[in-house]
Amino acid sequence: MYGGKKIAAGDTIFIFASENEGGPGLIACGIVTSAEPTRRQPGIARQTPRVSITVKRTAMARQSLGRRELKPFSDWEDSRAETELNFKFYRQATNKIVGLSDGAARFLRKFF
């Protein structure tokens, strides 16, 4: 969903601990050291593409960024980095890997 299946070794990644599972939101950034597609399970008609990744952490977040901070940004047409993050992470509350725009990546780098 949202380009996550295109992740590859060498990509920069921003790690959010799932708030649906008690996590605080943005916690770290790192570099993907390996990415392998996961096999589809036989007998299931519709399956979300899955990938298994290994990440080398490069920094811990210095300030909070989670659902509470992103919730006000819900005008899907405003082209703000905050709105893109709100849409991709919280519109559908599932664990996921998503591709981000350059603007959203620049915005997230401010938290490290």
Short description:
The chain has helices spanning 67-70, 81-90, 102-109; strands at 12-17, 25-37, 51-60. Helix 2 (81-90) crosses helix 3 (102-109). It is 20% helix and 26% strand.
Summarize the structure in words.
The chain is of the alpha+beta class and 112 residues long. It is built from three helices and three strands, in the order βββααα. The chain is 20% helix and 26% strand. Strands 1-2-3 form a three-stranded antiparallel beta sheet, with no helix packed on it. The longest helix is centred in the C-terminal third of the chain and has 10 residues. The protein is globular and about 40 Å long. The model has no long low-confidence stretch (mean pLDDT 90).
Main features:
three-stranded antiparallel sheet, 26% strand
Structural class: alpha+beta
Q: In the residues, how many domains can be counted?
A: 1
Mean of pLDDT: 90
Sheet with the most strands, sense and barrel status: 3 strands, antiparallel
Helix content: 10-25%
Uncertain runs with pLDDT below 50, 5 residues or more?
A: none
Number of strands: 3
